[in-house]
């Protein structure tokens, strides 16, 4: 903490600034130096000593003083970047200017009239420190000078990187430094790991915090589906104007992926040493996720040196995205994947000594980074799926999904986890990998089972659907789509997982659930499709599922005979009013949860959460592909795909049903959660909005894909009943043995082609990711609370 004297002096300067009605000249160094000359303030001091109300007061009442303060602070950073901060005093000035700008920038961004200030050139100022040069290109905008100075300072010997000086007399000139030799950590494209230096880590963290604050202008613009609006700060920083773009990108990625929070396996190690590296890793991963933004929402094909020229026409090229998409060496992929898996698994490692290992908190940022890696670099995605290493990402994701299912403040985490699994499930290899036996004993609040990773996935999804909170209902489509996508490859489901799938079918096929919303019958279609895939393509190893289907055969008969007359529909809806719960919790035989697990709990009262924009419906999120004989995928045209759920008679329903939760025409409208809630309530109150009719029920009932299962029941039920009568059997194992050796070859309908619904990027998902990611960044930066209580527009901050 700073000494009392220096804090008093700093506070005095702030008060002078707010009370001076006359503009203070930029040349009055004695006045301006008070803000950064003192060596002992911390960033927390600066936040405490510069209250929000005073920043706003200066902004409104003496704008020229605020402008001069910003200009002078940037000038000091530029001077530090040019001199390389040889003295301690200069280093301290740079850090103090960083802290002041971090404090002030959000208040510049929240006021529309000020937003352009950093992009204007300051009259009469020339380029700081280069007045004597002839200004051919004129002065740079303040924002550009600031960003270039930060980039230079991040590779400043003896400040943020180790000096390579050969002797006491040699000088490292900042202008001629080759920053590629000063990359912060070994990993992608760099072999040497520099010795740890916690002072360098602290200084990098302060500079990155300021850089993140510069990029945060995005938080002050309302959500918009216009993806061509780029963040000017990110665009400039990730352009060829920044000569450190490559080494900085590499440094950030390597620092994150090489980090090992456990501290070389020594228990309690993290309590002895404040971990400066962790703060750096957190800032680094946040910088990575906010800079890796699509240009115009569509990923460019990666530029190869030969194709760089013709790319000029396609607008500015984000070099971070470019470099990320061009990583291709197996050992680089391995380093990145192992690093992310290690960090994602860290919060799951239970030890017998309480608090003995450090638990990281930045798993949401890591998931966004993993998502962007897969999205921008298809080679990385295929590498992930090539071995069972993908399961080291799957297990932590399932753990987070299960743990967050009751907590409304973590609904964003639920979404990102499900999106990643949806993306992976579009690739055949993912389904194949799920057959690996699951032997880890991560304590999770789920029934104990013996089986594969596929069983784990199904058991967790069942738990989310039956015991998660109401806000998760929009994700049900995605969860079941993932199950359908992997189903053709699942060699043998456990009895526990088979029963869970049938329990879902039972819950989703009650008449009140089917008739209570226009979309609900899709869930039944998805489950039937999954059953059909397993029966047609993996019958041999799946006697548990076949047995479960036989035991619950009445569910299929009831579906086939679903009533559609007006009085049955009314009766079903009356029943709904009596039991408004989404899915009956009772008929699921809840078993004992795993030992050492904690139940999923709702958010603590008072928890802050950031709102999210609505997600596009499953048909917008995915496009259908058909798997042909040789295993290749062929895209299915959108119009009228075979055995897909067909769009229903919209004349009857007043809205175009299936295939979209958002309606075709207003694709670009984004609602805040509050607005969605209001719409939901108003639609619930006015029955005129949508009501089930006999025609509507018939329109989809006739398309229920029940033939395969009905044929299976027709063949096997009499045989099973006969065995039971003959042998007086009530013992499951005998029946399972019979089913295991049974065959349906030649008895089932011709196998249908396998349909995979692959994730596809679009404006809606791009906007969702932007709001989610910035919401995470906002909520995770609490010390100091950079954006707290400023007027952000991209999302709303809500208290639970």
From TrEMBL:
Residues 573-605, 623-667 are annotated as: Disordered. GO terms for cellular component: Golgi medial cisterna; Golgi trans cisterna; membrane. Coiled coil: none annotated. Residues 584-594, 650-661 have a biased composition (Polar residues). InterPro entries: Hid-1/Ecm30. This is HID1 domain containing.
